[in-house]
Structure formats: structure tokens, C-alpha cells
Design goal:
The protein is α+β, with helices and mostly antiparallel strands. It folds into two domains: 37 residues, no CATH class; 133 residues, Immunoglobulin-like, CATH 2.60.40. A hairpin with a 2-residue loop joins strand 3 and strand 4.
Length: 177
């Protein structure tokens, strides 16, 4: 602490509290210090976004750092689900359920099973493949059947110093499992 003489008066100034002639200088210095800390913060989050099981999507923090105020907005085709967590440590995850995607997956699985049964019946008949022609039997389904979905991973979070961060990935030709 030191004394400053102004117009025959002495005012005590504490360097930590700022200058009474310039109010807010201490606060401005604190803000500047916080901004410098945020700007130089090292923060690494490696996100893994993928199906845990059919209809259940996992958004997992695989990085070494903590993610705060996490918001995961995942869109699968025309179905959007949002999950939030105040804090995700390394290895922790948000699990999101997609009922329409699960129903679509089950429908596509039934179609694959029906196609497999049809191909087996064709082969057993001897007309297409097998002992008569020995040609492979082509599927009635598109080669992209079940792998023609669109997924968007939109993640927002904050670092421990308060830096806002975002990951926005879009994937085409995806499966639902």
C-alpha cells in the first residue's frame, strides 16, 4: 500500500483494489488476466460418437480433459435427440435413445432376412446358381440397403476455463447399428 497526495489530501491506494481516480482498473485487470488464461488454455477432448447398440447412440469423451456443460444434439435421418451433462470426465458418455431409428433398423433386418431366405430358396431350386448354373444369386436389395442413413453430431461444451467449444460433423451412408 502507498499514499498518494492529491490537492492537499492523501488517499491510500491498495494496488489490488484499483485506483480511486480510475475506478474499475482492478476489475479490468482481473478480466484481462482471465481472458489471457482462457486464450492460452490447453484443452483436448476427443469425442467418440457411434452406435452402442441398435437404437442407442453413445457420445463419449475419450480425451484427457474434462468437458463442462455438454450438450449433444444428434440427428439420425429425421429424428433428433438432445442429451446434456454438466460434466463429462475422460471415459464418461451421454447415451441417447432413438426409437424411430431402432424401428427402422429392425425393419431393415427383417428385409435382409427375407432376402437371405429368398436367395437360399432360389439356390435350392437349382435354377439360379447351385448345381445347374453355378452362378451367384444376386440380392433383391440395393447394395446400400441399411447403409443409406445420415447422421449429424452437433456437440457444444465448455473447457474448465470457460472457453466455448463446438464439434459439428455430418456423416452420410451410415448404418443404424
Amino acid at each position: 500500500m502507498f499514499l498518494l497526495g492529491v490537492d492537499h489530501a492523501r488517499v491510500a491506494i491498495d494496488p489490488g483494489s484499483g485506483d480511486p481516480l480510475h475506478p474499475g482498473v482492478g476489475e479490468a485487470n482481473a478480466i484481462t488476466k482471465r481472458e489471457a488464461e482462457r486464450a492460452t488454455e490447453l484443452h483436448r477432448i476427443d469425442w467418440s460418437c457411434d452406435w452402442d447398440t441398435p437404437g442407442r447412440y453413445r457420445v463419449q469423451n475419450l480425451g484427457p480433459d474434462i468437458a463442462l456443460n455438454v450438450r449433444a444434439q444428434i440427428t439420425v435421418d429425421d429424428e433428433t435427440v438432445v442429451g446434456e451433462a454438466l460434466r463429462l470426465e475422460s471415459g464418461e458418455a451421454i447415451i441417447l435413445d432413438f426409437p424411430r431409428a431402432l424401428a427402422t433398423y429392425k425393419h431393415e433386418q427383417r428385409e435382409r432376412d427375407e432376402d437371405r431366405n429368398w436367395k437360399s430358396a432360389q439356390k435350392d431350386s437349382g435354377l439360379f446358381g447351385g448345381t445347374v448354373t453355378n452362378l451367384p444369386i444376386m440380392s433383391r436389395l440395393s447394395p446400400l440397403h441399411g447403409a443409406d442413413h445420415w447422421i449429424r453430431d452437433l456437440l457444444t461444451w465448455q473447457s474448465p476455463a470457460g472457453n466455448p467449444l463446438k464439434k459439428d460433423d455430418q456423416h452420410k451412408l451410415c448404418t443404424l447399428a
